[in-house]
Amino acid sequence: MRQYSPDLTPPWKKPKAVPEVPADPGLVVEDPGTGFCGAVIRCEAGTVTLEDRFGKHRVFPLEPRGFLLEGKAVTLVRPAAGPVRPTRTASGSVAVPGARARVARAGRIYVEGRHDAELVERVWGDDLRIEGVVVEYLEGIDDLPSIVADFAPGPDARLGVLVDHLVPGTKESRIAESVTSEHALVLGHPYIDIWEAVKPSSVGIRAWPRIPHGQDWKTGVCRALDWPENTGAAWQHILSRVRSYKDLEPELLGRVEELIDFVTAPA
Hints:
The model has no long low-confidence stretch (mean pLDDT 86). Helices cover 27% and strands 19% of the residues. The longest helix is centred in the middle third of the chain and has 18 residues, at 114-131. The protein is α/β, with parallel strands linked by helices. Residues 1-25 are annotated as: Disordered.
């Protein structure tokens, strides 16, 4: 009969248990041995493939305590087989399976730039389609007075506007105040650019760099982070790391939710 020896390892020398995390596509983790940080793009038997911010792929074995997630050790495991129907939308709202998009309302939400519109679509797109709210973008806040005049907001056609880096006392704030009315709401977030509204940890960086005044902010960010100076590609990398509202800063979340409530309120 085989004899089994007791485990005499002291408790304080035994490795602590770490959580098991499904290697879902888009999950950003770091290999502690090499420092390679990237998003999961594929998980197969015994291995996981990561893609870093430059598009480079590396394959790693699925080992216990093999990765860092937000700085903490985890064990990646293969995701459950078969499609899983989400119970929440990316914004955190209750998902409505099979719901059809509502016919577009007369009300609109304008945001300051294409990147802003893409981010709003990524997180709130399902909600906006159900509510029938269309998001359009401004080329610049200087165009806002003419847009509001042409739109002619009213009880059945409310207008919401989201503006970057709205600081009291500036030209931008004066323009916002001039067009604000009972049926037109202009809100601003504190970030220089919508890029900053994405949490650094979601992008795989420690913090958004501070760029000296007078430099193009996006180009300066690419240089400071040692990214290729292609702001379009940099934005696609950032956007690909946004999976839900949890990847965004609260100051943006509150503004967008307020604008959606405003344009969908009963007349």
